[in-house]
Every structure is written in structure tokens, then in C-alpha cells.
Amino acid sequence: MAQYNIDRGAKLTNNDTIYEVIMLGDQDGNIINTFGAASNVIISAGDLAGYTGVHKYGAVYGSASGDMSTVWTAADTTGTKLYPWSHSAGTLSVVSTSGSDTGDITIQGLDASYNFVEETLTLTGTSPVTGSTSFTRVNRAFMVDDTNIGKVQASISSTVVTEIGAGYGQTLQCFYTIPAGKTGYLMNLSASASKNQVVDLFLFQRPFGGAFRVQTTMSLNQGNQQLDYPIPIKFTEKTDIDLRTQGSSNATISAEFTIVLVDND
Which residues pair with 173 in a beta bridge? Predict the structure, then answer.
């Protein structure tokens, strides 16, 4: 490859000065732009081997003021505030609050070895349907053919582990677990609060076998904020990530974050 020296204003010849040139290519050998947002398009397209993008987003409609609440739709003032991380692994039971919900729902998560698993079940309205795949973590669920009319919940041994709010068609939950064999890199975090009250947000991580601890924070007062990480925050495999809110009463808190997963091999 020809190399150009800006100081000399000429191409380098005779190997009198050597520079190392590093470029990023996709799985077909095409050179990738490594600067700016365009550099991540190839990841979203699934054309960069070993790299995957994860976009998590959620909301709580009716926050509690005193206790910390995970940012997910089940954490309203009368619901399950903190996500129940201590739930055991097991098969899922899904049910809707509306008898009209008879479409398919897909649940994505991790098995006991923290490898990716997915299962699609057909709802039968208000009658629970039990799957056959064992989940130890549930990262996402969504409707396949028809948007749900009622609230749809999936449970393991009667513990609600994910929820699709009525009419949303997709889970709104700001928690995630890094799969086995992957390392996660947090690229950004944004949030908004609806009320003229101070609300604090805490992004917790729990490395496998460790304790939950805060990694980053933000405070809002009827506004929004975005944090970008030029040096991404690193999460090792099997790490649990939980975005929690505290301080505002009966408010709407919404948030989202982006993680790039990189294969460890």
C-alpha cells in the first residue's frame, strides 16, 4: 500500500520511513469507515464478524419516590419495583389480561449456560400457556403477528420476568445480561423525566458471581440528558445490567442505552 507523509508532501519511497497502517474490514474484506456513526452501520447490518449491536430501552409509567425502581413497565407505583434477579431458571408461562390476545409472542434470553435461547408461543388470551425452553435470563419479548391488546406477562414459577404493556407489542425494559463468550461495551445512555421533581438514575452492573454496583449516574428535573462514552464502559460475560430510578413520585421515566457485543475468541 502506498503511504503518504504529510510533512514531506510526498509518497514514501525506498522504505526510508516506515509507518504501520491498520484498517478495519468486514467479513468480505471491504474497508470500513472507523470514524463517526457511519462506522457502526456495518455492525447493525450484521456484516462485521464477531460484533453485535444491542439497543435497550424502557419506561416506568408511575414511579415510586422512596424506593429504587428498575426502569421497566412493571415498576409502576403498585407493581414490581426492582427487577427480580433472584428468580430461578425454568420454563416460561405467558398470559394476557385480554381474551382477544391469541397471537404469537417471541421471548429471547439466555439458558443456564448463558447462551442465547429463543422461544415463540401462541397466546390463548387469559389462559396461561407454558413453554418448553428453560430460561435463566429474559432480555426481550415481542409480538410477532398482532400487537397485544391487553398486558402480557411471562413468568417463571409465578415470578414475572418480563412484561409487554397493553398496546406496545414489545417489552420496555432497561435491563440486560451479557451472553457467555461475549464482552459488552456501553456506548451511550439517555433518559428523560416528566415531572418537575428531581429524579436520580443509577446504572448498576453485577459481574458474574459479584454484587450489584453503580457504574454511572444522572439526575433529571423535568428534562432529558444523554451521556456518551468515548471510552466505553466494559461489561464482562454474564454480567447483569440494571438501570434504576429513585426520587420522583408518580412520574414517567424513560431511558435507553446502546451496547456493542464483541466475541471473546
Answer: 72
> Of how many residues is the chain composed?
265
Instruction: Fill in the amino acid letter for 191.
Output: A
pLDDT band at 58 (very low <50, low <70, confident <90, very high): very high
Cβ contact 159:84 at 8 Å: yes
Which sign does the torsion angle of CA 51, 53, 178, 200 carry?
positive
Do 253 and 245 form a contact (C-beta atoms < 8 A)?
A: yes
50: cell is 464477531
The three cell numbers of residue 185 are 461495551
Contact (Cβ atoms closer than 8 angstroms) between residue 22 and residue 229: no
Mean pLDDT on 106-116: 98
CB-count burial class (<10 Å; 0-12, 13-18, 19+) for 111: middle
Kindly report, residue by residue over 193-212, the tens digit of the pLDDT: 999 989 999 999 999 999 99
Threshold 0.90, pTM exceeds: no
98 Cβ neighbours under 8 A, 6+ residues apart: 125, 126, 148, 149, 150, 151, 166
Three-class SS of residue 173?
strand
CA distance 179 to 237: 6
Type of residue at 76: D
pLDDT tens string 221-258: 999 999 999 999 999 999 999 999 998 888 899 999 99
Radius of gyration of the chain (CA): 22
| Residue 204 and residue 259 in contact, taking contact as beta carbons nearer than 8 Å | no
d(CA 174, CA 190): 11
Spatial contact of 206 and 212, defined as CB atoms under 8 Å apart: yes
Cell numbers that stand for 36 in this block: 463517526
First to last CA, the chain: 29
